[in-house]
Design a protein that fits this description.
mainly alpha
């Protein structure tokens, strides 16, 4: 049986786009509680346990870093096991449901502690619960998004809405400290954490119920569900990188961009405070930038209908980088309106990268499935997550030592001229080389929409015939 012929007309016909809009929304909305969890987990929880719960700051930092290393074990393990799971509910959904339940327990204990003063063991225990839950949720959830039968644009629309839901969760997490402050409580105290806990305890089960309406996965073959063993699983990780050139380019390009973004974020507060003297704009800038990114999502999905996704992602990243570099080079201190203008422009353009980039991963995973004959989406996704953990750590190993060497110390009220110069240069240029390099790699991504549609049609044919 021949592979379905793909033409520009079939690629742009909304009536043929799959999954349908209701199913695409049902899949994407679960990213909202995931996005809602990230900021308090990384930004608020350490301060809460150090300031309110009585755990020494150094111990909080050590425990937070050590428990994050759990992902090195759990991400590949969950990826390999979920690839091989066979139940009447599918491969991914049981893992996601279990993760949501564990997350609810962890959130309740961590954000609404049952003790007045926590021990380091209490903090370590609740963080282990939450980080285990995020592996159970994210790896199968993102793998499922790459496996759901979809047209090229239909998949981009579904994954784009998923990222918009995550951005919405990230934004709304800032409401809790604002509400607590408005009623006279600490922005990082028990009341703020309780508001977030209540929101998550509602959003997680509700999101999961909606997710069950997203449709069925492709049925796994006997080879897909083969029993895992350590050496074959490790061999699959190596094979995924060695033989799948589109995935390799996507992985390298995306993580270079991640390094650049994290490098800029690492010094953003210090840059606003010491260079621009606008430290009070840090929160509003994040919130307004997030709102603009969400509102620009329809524009980027429309662009994705008309141009190849890798071109939209690559050029979007280059343009956003130029806006940041040129804007902050000419921005004088003490100009909040100009700062917002630059931040909004950068957020709107970078939104295209965030919204459309996951489609490239899905295309590369489908390519690997067709080439190898085995569906290992969980393996690919866990590789990407692990690479992301490394990429997010690299800037802290580069930027902070450079600042310290130049004489910049945040705890000192007076900073040397060399320290301020280093902060200015890093605040403007630290991320640019990585983001430009990553964009150039992504621009060479070899899978077009037509290629992806042919791959999807062939996988559907094989699935229908039980191949």
């Amino acid at each position: 049986m021949a592979i379905e012929t793909v033409t520009p007309e079939t690629l742009s016909n909304p009536a043929d786009e799959q999954p349908s809009i209701p199913r695409a929304l049902a899949y994407g909305v679960f990213q909202f509680p995931v996005g809602l969890l990230i900021p308090p987990l990384t930004l608020m929880l350490p301060g809460f346990y150090a300031e309110t719960m009585g755990v020494p700051l150094a111990i909080v930092g050590t425990i937070s870093a050590a428990t994050r290393l759990l992902h090195i074990i759990t991400d590949p393990l969950v990826g390999a096991l979920s690839d091989r799971t066979r139940t009447r509910f599918g491969r991914r959904l049981p893992w996601i449901g279990t993760g949501a339940l564990i997350a609810m327990i962890g959130v309740a204990l961590a954000f609404m502690p049952v003790v007045q003063h926590a021990s380091p063991y209490y903090l370590a225990g609740v963080l282990l619960l939450i980080y285990t839950a995020t592996s159970f949720i994210q790896i199968p959830y993102y793998a499922w998004g790459a496996e759901l039968p979809a047209t090229a644009y239909g998949r981009a629309r579904m994954l784009g809405w998923r990222e918009v839901a995550g951005l919405s969760g990230l934004m709304l997490s800032s409401v809790a400290p604002l509400l607590a402050s408005a009623f006279g409580f600490s922005a990082n105290g028990r009341q703020a954490m309780a508001i977030l806990a209540c929101a998550l305890l509602v959003a997680l089960p509700l999101g999961f119920v909606i997710l069950t309406r997203a449709g069925h996965e492709r049925a796994p073959t006997d080879q897909d569900a083969a029993r895992p063993a350590i050496l074959p699983v490790l061999r699959e990780f190596w094979t995924a990188i060695r033989t799948n050139m589109p995935y390799r380019r996507m992985l390298i390009g995306a993580q270079l961009v991640n390094i650049g973004l994290t490098a800029g974020q690492a010094v953003s507060y210090f840059f606003l405070s010491r260079i621009l003297h606008l430290d009070k704009m840090f929160g509003p800038l994040l919130l307004i930038g997030g709102i603009c990114a969400v509102l620009s999502a329809p524009l980027w999905l429309a662009i994705g209908r008309r141009v190849e996704f890798h071109k939209a992602v690559g050029w979007g990243c280059i343009i956003a980088t130029l806006i940041h570099v040129v804007g902050f080079m000419v921005l004088p201190p003490g100009k909040p309106v100009l700062l917002l203008a630059i931040g909004i422009a950068e957020a709107v353009v970078m939104a295209g990268v965030i919204i459309l980039a996951p489609t490239l991963q899905a295309f590369a995973i489908q390519y690997g499935t067709l080439k190898s004959g085995v569906d290992r989406a969980g393996t690919y996704v866990s590789l990407n997550q692990l690479a992301g953990q490394v990429a997010n750590a690299v800037p802290f190993l580069l930027v902070f030592p450079l600042l310290a060497f130049a004489g910049f110390e945040p705890s000192h009220t007076q900073t040397s001229a060399s320290g301020l110069f280093a902060l200015r240069m890093l605040g403007i240029f630290a991320g640019a080389p990585f983001q430009i390099a990553g964009a150039l790699v992504l621009l060479s991504f070899p899978i077009t929409k037509a290629d992806a549609a042919r791959t999807s049609a062939e996988l559907d044919r094989q699935n229908a015939h039980g191949i």
